[in-house]
Design brief:
Structural class: alpha/beta
Shape: globular
Strand content: 15-25%
Order of helices and strands: HEHEHHEHEEHHEEHE
Number of strands: 8
Number of helices: 8
Strand order of the largest sheet: 1-2-3-4-6-8
Helix content: 40-55%
């Protein structure tokens, strides 16, 4: 949201530092005006630039519920312009959003696979204290996933993504001091070991580009 002059200053300072290999910018698809895109293009000539976009879901009903603030065509336009500029694009997806079925979640992942995004971050939904979502959860309006459900869902997501899509994240965890649900997600070692064991047993990990 900063003026382009400020973005140029801080991004240039970061990307020209000798210890920095990649400039990764997390932003919204509706924040990529022509001036910002031109700046990212220029920086990409110095060192690789990655842009991370928080899509979360392709389903408009869910997008309105989580107050994402933009419609799917805005994401598609931003992705098209970034790829035209030669910039690596990584997309964030939240699995387990209230009201979404497993097939709807897989539809979001399948959609991104068809677009051949460079990378994807799969994030488990967390319910954190002092949020609207926490109040909704306590009312019984939705439930969070159990670990076996999540393992199967992650496996199905990886199976439908193209082999050249880099998996940057397959879980994520909220601060334990704020986490309400799912409680099992607070045990990071358990989650990572369980995912690794499941993928190995199902022979899903072979050929995958896991970061």
């Amino acid at each position: 949201y900063a003026p382009i002059e400020h973005l140029r200053m801080i991004f240039t300072e970061a990307i020209t530092h000798p210890d920095v290999a990649v400039l990764s910018v997390a932003t919204r698809p509706d924040c990529l005006g022509p001036d910002v895109l031109e700046l990212l293009y220029e920086l990409n000539q110095i060192k690789p630039v990655w842009v991370e976009l928080g899509l979360q879901t392709i389903h408009e009903k869910t997008a309105r519920f989580i107050r994402r603030g933009y419609e799917l065509p805005v994401f598609e336009d931003a992705l098209k312009r970034l790829k035209k500029a030669g910039i690596t694009v990584i997309v964030h997806v939240i699995l387990g959003l209230p009201g979404e079925s497993k097939e709807q979640m897989l539809k979001t992942v399948r959609y991104l696979g068809a677009l051949h995004v460079d990378g994807i971050k799969l994030q488990l939904l967390h319910v954190l204290k002092d949020t609207d979502l926490a109040a909704l959860y306590r009312s019984g309006a939705f439930r969070t996933m159990e670990l076996p459900e999540y393992l199967e869902l992650i496996g199905d997501c990886l199976k439908i993504l193209p082999p050249d899509t880099v998996i940057h994240r397959i879980s994520g965890d909220g601060p334990k001091s704020l986490l309400i649900a799912p409680e099992w997600s607070g045990n990071k070692r358990l989650v990572l070991n369980s995912i690794a064991k499941y993928l190995k047993e199902q022979k899903i990990y072979q050929g995958m580009g896991l970061l």
